[in-house]
Description:
The chain is mainly β. The protein has no helices and 11 strands.
Amino acid sequence: MSADAPKGMDFHALWCDDIRQEVGNKPSFMGVYTGALVVPQLPLTLPKLCVWLTLSAPQDQPLQDLEVAVALAGGAELLRLPLPIPTEPPRTGEDIPPQPTARQPVMLALELSPLHLPVQASALTVVVSAGGDEVGTSSLPVVAQTRVNT
């Protein structure tokens, strides 16, 4: 996290093969990666790779102007996604002032499909920025049993 990120910011990323929406609006994660993405050889095209992002910030320091980027190690950008966040959350009922312990959560599922991994792929990285400041990053190492130069 950047020094300019809101204090008390939480960021988590979970890399997996698939994210499914279950009954009761619950996400299920299939094929969760706990260490590295191990593939038989590179280059390789995966049908799909997903990442579930969870961010939260204190309600009195709300997240604004989020942007998510996914790249291969070495800089080849795969995805850049701006995510505008309303500056004032919608209120219902009484106008209650923010509570110091209340959190502003943001959850996001990303699907990279198909995902081509070139022979030099060594990791995938997701970076989340808020207001131009990096607030979270997560990398998934790519381990190939064989690398085929074509």
